[in-house]
Design goal:
The chain is an alpha/beta fold. 43% of the residues lie in helices and 17% in strands. It binds D-glutamic acid.
Length: 264
Amino acid sequence: MSPDAPILFFDSGVGGLSVLGPTRALLPCAPIVYVADSAAFPYGTRSEAEIAARVPALLAQLVDRFKPRLVVIACNTASTIALDHARAALDISVVGTVPAIKTAAALSKNRVIAVLGTDATVRQPYVDDLSHRFAADCVVIRNGSSRLVELAEDKMAGRAVSPQEVRAAVQPGFDREPFGDAVDVTVLACTHFPLLLDELVAAFPGMDFVDGSHGIARRIAHLTRGQPWPDAAPPGKAIFTGGLPSESLIASLCQFGIEEVGAL
Ligand code: DGL
């Protein structure tokens, strides 16, 4: 294992930064390649068949090019649909991102929790399975919001996003569900959404929000324990499949240690 072998983070857009942040805190010298499949963004409104075909094929191409030590699918939509296909297609470890339903169920006093993700994620059998296993005594509301994904992209591209806009993107999904007004814990089941945590907290006073990003970072640190790293943090790289992003987004990437940005 070369110390220079990177960890490859993969998402449709900037959502994976919510996993990269806590990972860098644990592994400050890790070489990073961050890949945003912006050519196919957003994933959340695509079909299962499209995602299951696209993600493993693209990852195989990226692994061939960057020779990473580990792949992190920092995207709930891709993980809940294509994690098994990706593992079958690659001969290195692949870490996925799954909704933190167990954590939410442990916290909920009302026994009513929400899974806030993309439309594609919230309809997955994977979510039903986690709900049966870890939240059997809770009502689990599924709230899909593609608008919230756009707002997270806007924020990272430098636009101030208001709590009112965030509330308008989320509240209708609660309003149409029986018990929607009793939700006290919401699982952020899309990696874009922790990037809007401040706005969500302001928009929904009294609601708890949980996500899996710190757990995934610990899993990455565990899987790479004992491996060699460079002596100092090398500049992180980002690749966008849909062409170079805006200058303001490039400035946000810098805050995550990403200093080289290119297109695939
Ligand atoms: N960040 C992604 C997720 O965790 C997907 C957002 C999208 O492309 O719709 O589900």
